[in-house]
Amino acid sequence: MFKPQIRIPATYMRGGTSKGVFFKLDDLPEAAQVAGAARDAILLRVIGSPDPYAKHTDGMGGATSSTSKTVILSKSSQADHDVDYLFGQVAIDKPFIDWSGNCGNLTAAVGAFAISNGLVDSSRIPQDGHCIVRIWQANIQKTIIAHVPITSGQVQETGDFELDGVTFPAAEVQIEFLDPAADEDGEGGAMFPTGNLVDTLDVPDVGSFPATLINAGIPTIFVNAKDIGYTGAELQDDINSNPAALARFEQIRAYGALKMGLISDISEAVIRAHTPKIAFVAPPLNYMASSGKAVHASDIDLLVRALSMGKLHHAMMGTAAVAIGTAAAIPGTLVNIAAGGKERQSVVFGHPSGTLRVGAEAKQLDGQWLVTKAIMSRSARVLMEGWVRVPPQV
Q: How large is the average pLDDT for residues 259-267?
């Protein structure tokens, strides 16, 4: 006889241009309250992975990198923080969860969840205004500040803030990524791991071309669109319908990861699918966004397209946006050059769904570039709350 399903308290939330299943740590089955195979097995089953049909019909996932996400939250173990935020990127067709990086988009939902689920001390929640939620991002050991709007003591989710890549308006949530240079596995890596603003990346069967390799928000490899045969105005179908193109991008990503020191052998790239990201940049062009909205070159500083989990993202990952803002603030990077080459504290870039503004504060200290803060606005809301049900794990 088969055992009945178990049910686990959960909340399904949209944050920025992503959505995922959120859990309080102590609501998970005891075996899943610690990192390891039991936790991964349950979360894979929640999402519906691995799915050889790539549909996630038997789970909560949406069969895209933006919608195959899980979040575990708990009261913070760190001083002067409210909540610990752990993010798991779930592979679609493999039994694998990548815990190596953050999701910047879902960060916008973390503060709201924390407030609504008792993870923020009630004395810190205003009756009206904004609640400042201090988030410890456990994957990359970084502090993030979320400014969550509050009305009558409750999280305000509705509003008129529009975010390209999201169909409906909602309340604006400002996110500050403090000291965003990514610490790989908490070991304090350099913002530019090779020590260079631009490197030459040699990729077998693809070519040699300039690349900016940066740890900020999330490890990211930036290349020029023209160097790999693109304009920078491509939409998802232009890339994702071409298996050969996707294979080339994965080859570039793998060799970039090796040059950044994130892997020690090229074969390891396959088990580190979430990081680093691969993105390509270009000067502004007029183009039509995926929604049919016209994006004018005069309204943007540059074009950026990025891949996540092997596919071109429909908009822009929040963590990659941090990398874009950070690199744009530092003269000499490929991102800064594509944006016109001048010093700047914010940049507006065009992505497949429209445009996004991100700011960053950069300074040089003893010859090293430091970025103290990157800022962007997102929105978030609860889609469903209650329990998810999964068959008992073997």
A: 96
Beta strands of 157-285 (E only): which ranges? 173-178, 199-203, 207-216, 218-224, 277-282
Rounded CA gap, 23 and 38, in Å? 15
* Phi then psi dihedrals of residue 6, to 5 deg: -100, 155
Structure tokens at 278: 């691969």
Q: What is the pLDDT of residue 184?
A: 46
Average pLDDT over residues 313-318: 96
- Residue 96's contacts (CB-CB under 8 Å, 6 or more residues apart) are 50, 90, 271, 273
pLDDT at 237 > cutoff 70: yes
Catalytic residue among 191, 309, 316, 317: 317
Distances (CA, A) of 323 to 200, 243, 317, 319: 19, 27, 10, 7
Catalytic, 103? Answer yes
CA–CA separation, 383 and 137 (whole Å): 23
Nearest Cα to Cα of residue 104 among 177, 200, 33, 194? 177
- With helix as H, strand as E and coil as C, how does 323-373 read? HHHHHHCCCCCHHHHHCCCCCCCEEEEEECCEEEEEEEEEEEECCEEEEEE
Cα 323 from Cα 317, distance rounded (Å): 10
pTM: 0.89
Question: Above 70 in pLDDT, residue 394?
Answer: no
- 13, β-bridge pairs: 20, 382
* Nearest Cα residue to 190 out of 319, 342, 326, 304: 326
What is the band of 353 on the pLDDT scale with cuts at 50, 70, 90? very high
A 10 A CB-CB count for 95 gives: 11
Catalytic residue among 103, 191, 309, 316: 103
Nearest to 179 by CA among 139, 141, 133: 141
β-pairing, 277-282 vs 368-378, is unpaired
**Residue 381: burial class (beta carbons within 10 Å; 0-12, 13-18, 19+):** buried
Residue 35: both structure tokens together: 């990192």
Does residue 317 carry a catalytic annotation? Answer: yes
**CB neighbours (10 Å) of residue 109?**
32
Asked if 125 contacts 131 with a C-beta cutoff of 8 angstroms, the reply is yes
